[in-house]
């Protein structure tokens, strides 16, 4: 059994045990069951088959089966087996309850664990330290810290595991101050922390982002002569990265004699997070063995630093290496598709990985798909993903509301807003950006004002610059330019480019030179190199036949060295992208393209179509 590496070898050993009669002996039978249940090469179904044929399994065998179901992430079957132990009055030990509670940590609610807690109280196992630690861990894992703290406080005996478990519970709930307070209490009670305790404490330093605290913890560890194993050193690297001290993280990494994938990936994540993509890629390429997490970290680094092409190139390398991506990597790849407008690739990812069930669709992944489809112009596909979601969160609703608004489906966006509120979800800042944008596109002035005022009055949300910009855009589109300007003057902050840009665009639409000139002056002060400002102002002047002002604007551009950004278009044909500048002829098929364009112009003239050239 010691040298057994596969189920095939195990079955050969089992056949030998049957032939020699060893199968009737408890110890070898237990080893057989243990391999099937707990080995990475095991098979839980085969373990169940063996267990079902044992006439009188001992407590070790019961416990092994429950551990196996926990390891295999099959909590329902494991909990059913635990209940069967109770029904058959099996003489349980402390480990039976600990393993039962471990199974219950995989359920979404605490009901099953509370059932075991009741059995523990009835059977007299409550005072046992091992069982009590298991209960503290169970309640901490589910975020029920009051129950965990009460159990801890009621314990007459506590060991380092008790303290570490509760400290870890506070860290898990992102309560670093409570975790540190408990750690200091632990030290005052003369309880010596172990490596796991210190890893947990380092996590609190990461959450607080407090480098001075991190240094004091490091000093304590050095003073106590802790044996810094790989896990503790990895925690040091992670802490320094999260505190923004990449230099210190690199020093620790360089001194490590043994490094694992976590060591490398943590440093890659750190460099990527702070925009040092070249260094991140250098470490990624140097990794002796890349795992799924390291690939995902590098792809995420490119995607989150606005380098979508590099993210997609690396994703293609990952696919070529036959590595199945995880949810987080697909989310980053979909973000890169969104940035580039690569709808075809996004569709392929959806079909190949999600629809064909190679990767399970979570709420986060579905939200990324909705965002990709809506921003790449396929709002119907976004709607299909949304409608097919068994669970939706606020991001799901926001994505659809913002998507519908961007596509001009104002009524549909507002319908979704009403439905979202009826589901008991509270809107946030992003929700109202979508709602107000929808009102702007739909011309719903009254509703827009109401929603804008409801933000603070009904939902307790402070209006931000982007919300003011939406309302100013709404008023401007409807020709209420003076009202829009009055709102700008009433703003509690200095207006930004979005606010003045909305007013300038409205002035261009309605030919208001005076306010347009004012908005343009403000914008030129905020961003003097933006050629679009000058072109919009020039267009307003031209619409009013103020040719002197047109010449003055163009002269101003020359004096300030502002050059008009050439218009460009991008089109995807059979997965390949073609980019065109205005009037260029560098494309290998430019003759054919211009031929078709001329044919379209002839057809449009025959239809008496008159293009709107006011923006040109």
In words, what does this structure look like?
The chain has 34 helices and 2 strands. It is an all-alpha fold. Helix 6 packs antiparallel against helix 7 (about 110-125). It is elongated.
Question: In short, what is this structure?
Answer:
This protein has 616 residues and is mainly α. The protein contains 34 helices and 2 strands.
> Could you tell me how far the N terminus lies from the C terminus, measured between alpha carbons in angstroms?
80 Å
Label the overall shape: elongated
Which radius of gyration do the C-alpha atoms yield? 32 Å
Structural class: mainly alpha
Helix amount: 55-70%
Question: What is the arithmetic mean of pLDDT?
Answer: 90
Outline the biggest β-sheet.
2 strands, antiparallel
The counted number of beta strands is 2
Uncertain residue segments: none
Strand numbers in spatial order across the main sheet:
1-2
The share of residues in extended strands comes to: under 5%
Number of helices: 34
